[in-house]
Design goal:
Layout: H1 6-29, H2 36-55, H3 67-80, H4 84-104, H5 115-131, H6 134-140, H7 143-146, H8 150-179, H9 181-191, H10 195-220, H11 240-276, H12 280-285, H13 288-308, H14 314-349, H15 353-375, H16 381-402, H17 404-417, H18 425-428, H19 435-440, H20 442-445, E1 454-457, E2 463-466, H21 471-479, H22 490-502
Antiparallel strand pairs: 1-2
Helix pairs in contact: 1-2, 1-10, 2-3, 2-10, 3-4, 4-5, 4-10, 4-16, 5-10, 8-9, 11-14, 13-14, 13-15, 14-15, 15-16, 21-22
Length: 507
Amino acid sequence: MFAVDDRTRLALATFGVALILGSLGDMLLRATPWGLNVFIWTTVLVVAAVTLARVWNVGLAGEGRWFLPLAVLFAAGVVWRDSITLGFLDVVAALVSLSLAALWGRTGRVRLRGLSEYIIGGFYTGAVSAAGPLPAAVQDVRWTEVTQGRRPGQALAVARGVTIAAPLLFVFGALFVAADAVFENFVIEVFDIDLVDIFGHLFLIGFFFWISAGLLWLFLLSREPGGFSFRRPNVLSLGITEIGITLGLLDLLFAAFVFVQIRYLFGGAETIITSAGLTYSEYARRGFFELVTVTALALPVLLVAHWLLRGEERAHRRVFGGLAGAMVALLFVVVASALYRMHLYTAEFGLTELRFYTSAFMFWISVLLLSFLPTVLTGRRDRFALVALTTGLAAIVVINAINPDALIASTNIARLEEGKRFDPKYLTNLSTDAAPILAKAMPEIGERHVYPPYEGPTPSGETRTFEGPTLRGELLNRWSAEGDWRTWNVSRQRADRIASQLDGGLR
C-alpha cells in the first residue's frame, strides 16, 4: 500500500479528465461546420472543472468563476446562429471567458483589474495552456509516491517502454513499408488500418488533452499568479509639455477635419457635389475605413498618453483632461461622419456583412470613448478595462440577438421591392440565419440568375448562350443540411426544413 497526497491525486485526476476531454474533442470537434459539438465540449469542460473543484474542496471565491456560465452561453451561440463571422466571435468570447475563469476563479477580483492585467493575463493563460500537463507533472505530482509499490512501478515502467518504443516502431516500420511492396501489402492486410486517419485522431486527442490539462491546472492547482499589471518605468514617463504638444497638435488636425465634415453632414448632396465634385456614392465609398482606423487608433493613443504622463501636479492633470476631452468630442464627429458615409453607401449599394460589422465596431468604440471620460480622466483607469470587457462581451450577445444575416437579407430585399440596385450574389453569401427572410421573399426574388449569361461551346462545336444558376436554386442547395448530429444547428435545421417545403418534399 502507498499513500498519495491530495495535491498529487488532484493533478492525476486532471490528467484523466483532460484525456477524456481530448478524446471527446476528437470525436466531436473534428466534424464541421461547428454547432452542437462546441456547446457539448465546452459544457463538459466547465462541468468537469467545477466537479473537480468540489470533490477536492478547491474554493471558488474569485469573481472569475462567474465567467464559467458565460463560456457556456457563448458556446450556445454557435448552436443558435450559422454565420461564420458570428460563430468566430462566439468562440473568441467563450475562450476569453474560460481564460478569465481560469485566472481568477479561485481568488481575485475581476472588477479591479487594469487593461494591462487583462492583456498580460491572456498571454499567461495561453502560455500555460501551451505547456499542457507539464506544470502539474513537474510541480504537483510526487512521482516517488506514485511509483511506490510493485504494481504501480511496473505499470509506469511499461508505460515508459511503450512511449519510447512507439516512435521507433513508427519510423522503422514506415521505412520498411516504403522499401518493399510485399511488406506494405502484408502490413495493410494484417492491420487493415488507415495510418493517416489514425494519426489525425491521435493529433486531435493530444491537442485537446494538452490545452485541457493546462486550463484545468491553472483553474485548480496553480499558485496565485499575483498581479499582471505593468508598472511604468520612470524612464518612460513624459511631462505635460510633451504630452500637451502631442495632443494639442492632434486636436488641431482633428478640428480641421471636423470643420470640413460639418459642412458635408449638414449641407446635403448639393454641398458634396459642388464642393468636392463627388457623387453621393463616391463620397460614401471614399474614406469610411480610413475613418474607422482613425477612431480605433485614437483611443489607444489617449490611453498610452495618460499612462506616460507624470501627474504630480493637479494642474497638469487638468490640462491633460481638457486636451483629451476635446479629442474625444472631435472623435464623435469623426464617428458621425463615418457612420453617415456608411448610411449613404448602404442606401446606394445595399448592406453587406463587412459593412454591418464595421458599423457595429464603430458603435462599440463610441461607447468606449464615452466611458473614457468618467473612468480614465477621473483617476479610475482600472474601471475602463472592465467597461471594455463587459461591453465587448455584451456587444456579441446583442449581435447574436440582432441576427446580422437576417438584417442584411431584409435590407436588400426591401431595396429589391423598391426597384433599387440589387446584386443577388449578396444573398448567396449569407448563412442559413437569413433563410426565413429569404423564403418569404421568394416570390419577389423569382428566378433571378446569380451570374449573368455567358457564351460557351457546345459538344457539337456550336457557340450558344448559357444561363447561370438561379438564385432560388443556389439558396435551396445551400440550405440543404448534410451534416451529422455533431454539426446540428438551429438555423441550419430550420433552413433545411424550409428548403424541403419549398422543394415540395421532392429532395
